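Sample pair:
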Amino acid sequence: MKVQAVISLKAGHRLGLLLEAAGLARSTFFYHQGRLALPDPQTGLKAAIHAAFNTAKGRYGHRRVHRELVKAGWQVAKKTVLKLMRQSGLFSHVRRRRRYNSFQGEAGQAAPNLLDRDFNAGEPNEKWVTDVTEFRIGESKIYLSPVMDLFDRSILAYSWGTSPGLQLTNTPLQEALSTLRPGEHPMVHSDQGFQYRHRSWRNLLAGAGAKQSMSRKGTCLDNAVIEGFFGHLKEELFNHARYPSVEAFTAELDEYMHWYNNVRTHTRLEGLSPAEYRTQALAAYGSN
């Protein structure tokens, strides 16, 4: 830092006076000046870090950026990636929690908490989770209802709309249920929102032979994985951007959901995206 300051000022001042003011020996100054003139040996790595960070639209921290570099053939330590990202001012977004509270009283029938915070699934379509979250765009609100498979954290189906009504939640459930193969009867877990207590929701589950599970009243940790997904979604897409219209936001939302399923890497999935993890798992099942 001192060397760079002296370099910037020496054209208009005597070098000896600058070195004395900075407390630098002449030999030390010329040594570091020579080093600054050398090409940066990490130029290529820095460019690769910027590329991985920008491709993910600033959504990746140093661990996921490191994983992308390793995939591309780089041999580099995570600490080095963290250091270079900090030097370049590349920081992933900071999460801010804000969620839609879908519980609206005691109307309808509640189901037992069959999931019981066991968020592991040994095969696809064994355990699904769902919930509703909201976004405010200007004076408008947009509601999102996804259905997630706990096996690979993939979003099987989703819908968004301007009302948190039955159509918002029933539509993605119907779409997800339509993908089931013979013999697949997932447990479907939600909170105690009115949509999930409604007869239409229970009928859809019963028609597919699916088991209904609900969180305990006011206990969001009973559905922690979908809550975590909403946190990442808002951190990576919504909290640090401004959208001029509902149409602009929903277009980005659709793009994000595709990116989440097919590109975004997950530590829990061995550094793969949900689509990659599912493909590998199904191939392994087929070979057994």
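Residues 246-262 form the longest helix (17 residues).
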